[in-house]
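Supplementary Note 3. Input sequence used for the single-chain structure prediction.
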Amino acid sequence: MTSLAERLREGPAYLDYNATTPVDPEVAEAMLPYLTAHFGNPSSGHPYGRLAAAAVATARDQVAGLIGAGPADIVFTGSGSEANTLALRGTLLPALRQGRDHLVTQTTEHPSVLETCRALERLHGVRVTRLPVDRHGRVGPEDLRAAVTDRTALVSVQHANGETGTLQPVAELAAIAHQAGALLHTDASQTIGRIPVDVTALGADLLTVTGHKCYGPKGAAALYAPERLALEPLLCGGGQESHRRAGTENVPALVGLGAAAVKAAGLLGTEPARLAALRDALHDGLARAFPGRITLNGHPEHRLPNTLNLSIAGVIAADVLAAAPGLAASTASACHSGGHRPSDVLLAMGIGKQQALAAFRLTLGRWSGTADTGRAVQALTKAVPRTGD
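The predicted structure, written as discrete structure tokens, is reproduced below.
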């Protein structure tokens, strides 16, 4: 059987790790028994159920350990979007009964946060403040300080942006939120396993973890939410997840999430530096291939070690990638009705339309190496029209 590493070598150069990561073979191996022999329902009292329940408890310990939390503070969900929605809706609905009807977020958040904010406005009369970002995509702490009031229930600012890799000053923002008596939620889906993440150091009251961003399976995620917080559940039914998220647990996926957390923790001492060096070499290679045409989008220092978002002047990135079958990467634009729309994230940073349409998101991961970056440079060099053509 062909290994994952072999498949990645044989296929297009995969530089889209921020979209999803492959399931680590060790994670898949840990999951397999729970897809076959260990099939019990964790709520059942017989040996099959008890074995499944023990596996879920172990996974809870493993995820908690990765972020410096206690296992009782981990709520398993089916996706990062669900965890984000639970954090926002679950916090705001109880807060409304106490007169706190204000939520603060920022313009470059993940759609699951922005759309939940819109739903809370529409359905529950919640007041939402959307903070601007600077040219690097960072929220200004003074903007948050000016926005919070004694009616603010929650501040939700992602730890890192998935397009640009820009890191937010979450600890500073959390301190401001707490001074106003508000909670802080951060979506750490893009930072888990890529840089150290500790809920205490960040000052986060709620934090989102997503399995398929850290070499675990899709369909498994978690929300860090201390037991002391009163959360309104999204799903009602049985008493699973301490009555915070009903539904029979997806045991194989949760086992995989736990195994991925353990593997990620073991690599944090070396992997960030390796990826940062690879990212910078890729940037240098593209700058040499396209002299005078490369512009970095995002913060040059406060960013993820694996993420490179840059524009190549004079191109439409989506068209270039369509002409580069040897490269699996993303643009920072979305296609609509036969045309191209610039990334809302880049526009919110004050980047012009043409530069935004020329933006590529190149993201590295556990199986990336110099061969992949070399193939990426070669593929783009072939696909990008020469100046004057």
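The chain has a mean pLDDT of 96. Residues 324 and 380 are 7 Å apart (CA to CA).
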